[in-house]
Structures are given as C-alpha cells and as structure tokens.
Design a protein that fits this description.
About 25% of the residues lie in helices and about 20% in strands. The protein is of the alpha+beta class and about 210 residues long. The strands form 3 sheets. Strands 1-2-3-4-6-5 form a 6-stranded mixed sheet, covered by helices on one side. Strands 7-8 form a two-stranded antiparallel sheet. Strand 9 and strand 10 form a beta hairpin.
C-alpha cells in the first residue's frame, strides 16, 4: 500500500515494464523487454493518476493523429503508438513540438469504428518536450525509483522519501508535473491528490483524506 496518508505534498511513485503488477508488463510478456526500454510511469498519490513517459516516435508529424492496429504490433514504435492511444496523460519527446500539448479524443482514435480492434474510447493528453528534457526526466525518475525502495511502512501508513516538496529542491520533474501536467487533470484525478478547481478554474488544495 502506497501513501495511505494523503498529504498536501503527494508522493511520486515510479514503475516500468519490469514491474509484474503494472499493465506495462503485458507488453513485455508479448514482445520482449528490449522493446520496452525507456518507457516508465510516475504515479501521484495513492494509486492514481498515472503519467506515462514514452521514448520518441520518429516523424510522428507524418501520421497525426497516430493509429495502430493491435493485431499488427511488431516493433517498439508500434508499442509506443498503442500506449499513446490508451493512456490519459503522456509525456513524449519531440523537438519540433516541444512545449505543445495535443489532445486525442475518442473520435480521432477510431478510423474504423465498426472494427473493435481499432477502437480507443479514452481521451489522451500529450505533453511534448525536448529530447534533452526526456533524458533528464528519465535520470531523475530512476532516482525516484531508488527512493521508493526506502519507504517505511508503519501500520497503515507509508513514510515516503518522495514528497514533491523535497524532490523539487534538486529535481526538475516534479515542477514540470505541477506546472505543465496538473492543469490538464480532470476533477477525479485532482481529487486523488487532494486538489480541486475553484470557481475561477485555479487548482487549489482541498481537504486531505485519511489524515489524522
């Protein structure tokens, strides 16, 4: 159990395809670990929301919006595109679009609506960054992974060393998430990290859940 005690400074939890409890492991079993290198997730708070980080998809501008048929997945890039279409929040390196945010709605993911194998029913928000930023965030995420291993479990609570207030002192990735990604969270995902939007649309702290 991660972070039963929700606090203003939510924890960040790392996962990748080597974690048998993560759905990324499904792709490893089917296509091999070598095609999953560079893919990782950061989970905020208890179990959700998740932010997926994908390696670069070359020339993505030539096939936008992207499309993949699950029956034809072979390469690592096919896997990236499949994940691109099924996750809610995705960070992707692509220098040409760095700084941009693009949204894939269900109607843009269904080129053949009558074919269930090509149906994607979720909204995906993509955050484009530079290749250098991706390398940095990946390095920082690996450090977060090491810190996750230092968590202490006391009763029903988890004492974590990955609170954003502490990580922001020497990492860039928590600030990126807070400033660039959080504004696109829906109300349910904001609730998971003890936040909500006020009447003016600003994200504010709300009552913690499970705190003593």
């Amino acid at each position: 159990m991660k972070n039963y005690r929700k606090e203003f400074n939510y924890i960040i939890y790392y996962s990748d395809s080597t974690n048998e409890q993560d759905d990324l492991y499904f792709y490893t079993e089917s296509f091999g670990q070598n095609k999953m290198n560079g893919i990782f997730k950061l989970t905020l708070g208890l179990h959700f929301p998740e932010i997926l980080f994908l390696p670069e998809i070359e020339n993505i501008h030539e096939s936008w919006p992207p499309y993949v048929d699950y029956r034809l997945i072979q390469s690592a890039e096919d896997i990236y595109k499949a994940l691109l279409l099924t996750q809610p929040y995705i960070v992707l390196p692509y220098n040409e679009w760095a700084g941009q945010v693009r949204v894939l709605e269900p109607d843009s993911k269904n080129p053949v609506p009558s074919d269930p194998e090509t149906y994607y029913g979720y909204k995906s928000t993509l955050f484009f960054i530079t290749e250098e930023e991706y390398k940095l965030y990946r390095q920082e995420a690996e450090k977060i992974n090491e810190l996750n291993d230092l968590e202490e479990h006391i009763g029903y609570e988890t004492i974590s060393k990955t609170h954003t207030e502490d990580l922001e002192k020497y990492m860039k990735i928590p600030g990126f998430i807070k400033e660039k990604v959080l504004p696109y969270f829906d109300d349910r995902d904001l609730y998971e990290i003890s936040r909500k939007r006020d009447e003016e649309g600003n994200i504010i702290f709300t009552q913690t859940i499970g705190n003593k």
